[in-house]
Design goal:
alpha+beta, single chain, 8 strands
Length: 184
């Protein structure tokens, strides 16, 4: 019974977990694109760390130091309370940096587990990595394309998944967008 058409139970458990993680992350970006921010906030743990370090241009020999440390400068370093405030500000309808509202689309790809596991029990964490493209169009002619990678820590809570940590690493060292009113 351990082998089903060449697939072991362990491999099936891994594929099932990966599908659950992918579905969760795809549903999350749909909530952001559809501006369902209250539902999006529900996917975050109360102690979330939502961090976007800055990129640095460094020599090849220092390439492992091309992002700022967590206690250094960052594009954003938010907790749940700050994220709630950002959402409430956007929801006022008079957010100066996003009025009229932007059209945003997220594309996620290359979703994988940072460490291979086959199950995620209640209270356990999984480290994931993925690549993203965030496209934003404002008014008639403002377009931003933000590309990078994310490192997420997902936590099993009440049988479902929540995000307890997100590290967002942009592939640009100079931010070309006028603002960062979108989420990643």
């Amino acid at each position: 019974m351990g082998d089903t058409n060449g697939l072991t139970q362990e491999r099936l458990a891994y594929l099932d977990l990966m599908r659950e993680i992918e579905d969760f992350l795809y549903a999350e970006v749909d909530l952001m694109d559809e501006r369902k921010y209250d539902e999006w906030l529900d996917l975050l743990t109360e102690d979330i760390v939502y961090w976007m370090p800055m990129r640095k241009n460094v020599p090849f020999r220092e390439r492992d130091q091309d992002i700022t440390e967590e206690d250094d400068l960052a594009w954003m370093h938010d907790d749940k309370e700050t994220l709630i405030k950002r959402v409430k500000q956007i929801q006022t309808g008079i957010h100066w940096a996003d009025e009229p509202i932007s059209r945003v689309s997220h594309v996620l790809t290359n979703i994988r587990l940072a460490e291979p596991i086959t199950a995620l029990g209640e209270g356990e964490k999984a480290m994931t990595k993925c690549r993203f493209i965030v496209y934003r169009n404002r008014v008639e002619d403002e377009t931003d394309l933000l590309i990078g990678r994310r490192e997420d820590t997902l936590l099993r809570v009440d049988g479902g998944l929540k995000i307890s940590r997100r590290k967002i690493i942009l592939d640009q060292s100079v931010l070309l967008a006028k603002n960062l009113t979108m989420f990643f």
